[in-house]
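pasting for ref
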Amino acid sequence: MEIETITIEGNSYLTGEVTLSESVMASKIALIAGILSQNPTVVKNPPDCKTLGDTTEILAFIGAQILTDDGVSIHGESISMSAIPPNKTLTTFELVLIWATLLARFGKAGIPETVIASHSYLRPILEAFGVTVELESHYVVAYLPTTKKDCAVTLPSEMSFEDKVLASLVALTLATSGLKTTIKQCAPSEEFDILKAVFTQMGVHIQGDNLEIVVESVPELIGILYVVPPSSREALLYLALVAVSKGDIQITNFPNKSLSRITKRLLDRGVEFSLDKEVLRVWQKDQVFTPSIQTLSESQRLPLIWQSVLSVISGLSDGESQLFIEKHKVSEIVSPLSSCGVEVTVLPSDPFTSEVRIFGPHKFRATKFAPESYESAVSALLCAQAASGTSEISYSNAIKDVHQNIFSSLAKLGMKIYGYQE
């Protein structure tokens, strides 16, 4: 795996205008949904990103015709395989979503046992759809019942937010293969909203909100022309980088709908910004923030990337902050803070969650860090920008896999960042 090391001189002043690139995640969700359509689904304005190519490569491997003449199109009708080959480039999230989509399309789909083994929380969802599962040559092969019927699915409450997002997408995807499906307690996530919009455009009837939606399938899903929205993760990254240092930038086409819950939290903490229609201006002169005090139930509705941002803001806040973060991810998110000299205490909360207490305000010191994930890489990037001195971050494309040409864009805004290759 290729490892790059970038250096960042902290506390640089960021200024200028930002045009967001297209969402990699939304592009992937639309292309995967195209497995179900009987005519081409076209992603009109795909981002220029290596990981999108990794997704189209596996779709082509299972038989889909992928064309790149005008955007990226998938001809799902040509798919001949209903099993996913072993793959080390795609995330587990993508592989499970492709598997569920193949299951909805063919009524049978296989996935390597090593991929699905950690997703036991999907079992009650599959059972609600009448899915039976067999183990064949290290593959988990799932079968939908041949007789379609109405069904009801309630997502388990005892799971992490990220797991609940994937469970919601799997349930919604399988609902396209039935008659009428009621799904309760879906994750309030951008990914779920994107898939709902894609399926609605394909002809599926979907009503209700995340607490309870009703899905009525149609005999055939139609291919669509999908216009990719701006990347909300990129918008949040720009906003947070100014907040933890100093600057004055303007972000056009700001995706406020998908980020409204986190922007409200940042505004309450003391981050200074204004929003006029789809243009957000963020400026910061002094890092005077109030602590974040979360409840456990609140934290279960927050994406991990939001927790990364709130953790760094908490290190700059005047007082003690209390966050709750998934136990298996807490080290990735808070380790960059500890390496910068921020006082962090991690306590057990429940079998799935850790209570994180962050004591501020701190003057971040320069550090050397090797992030393990995207959320960890964002936390490290924010810490380096907030720190005094020069930090080194070694990573395996964790940021570039999600954001197109992000480092060169940050350099144009005035961030003192060196050593990257884009």
